[in-house]
Write a structure and sequence with these properties.
single chain, alpha/beta, five-stranded parallel beta sheet, 5 helices, about 50% helix, globular
Length: about 120
């Protein structure tokens, strides 16, 4: 079981991910709706893993990944991205993200990617 922080500006997406992760036995320790909030919650909660949307208000997911990696170079972050954002996914991976999931996603793909990144 891992402690996970979910970051997405869409409440329904956070709710969906929380349901998937909780049913898989993980603990969702926090949620954030933008990159700035994600960085603050990462400092407070020190989760084992973060799921991070890319396009968000105030601070995007890529900038948030860079900020979190400055705080914790061993942070495990999975990008959640819409189809057509491959260039942004590559930028996120170069910035330190360990994996990515393409929206719309299936629960099994989320669990597989979370488990892969947690065991890396």
């Amino acid at each position: 079981m891992a402690r996970i922080l979910i970051v997405d500006d869409a409440a329904f997406m956070r709710m969906l991910l929380k349901k998937i992760l909780t049913q898989a036995g993980h603990e969702v320790v926090g949620e954030a709706s933008n990159g700035r909030e994600a960085v603050e919650k990462y400092k407070q909660l020190k989760p084992d893993l973060v799921t991070m949307d890319i396009v968000m208000p105030e601070m995007d997911g890529i900038t948030a990944v860079k900020e979190i990696m400055k705080i914790d170079p061993n942070a495990k972050i999975i990008m959640i991205t819409a189809v057509g954002q491959e260039a942004k996914v590559m930028e996120a991976l170069k910035s330190g993200a360990k994996g990515y999931i393409v929206k719309p996603f299936q629960a099994q793909k989320v669990i597989e990617e979370v488990n892969r990144v947690l065991s890396s």
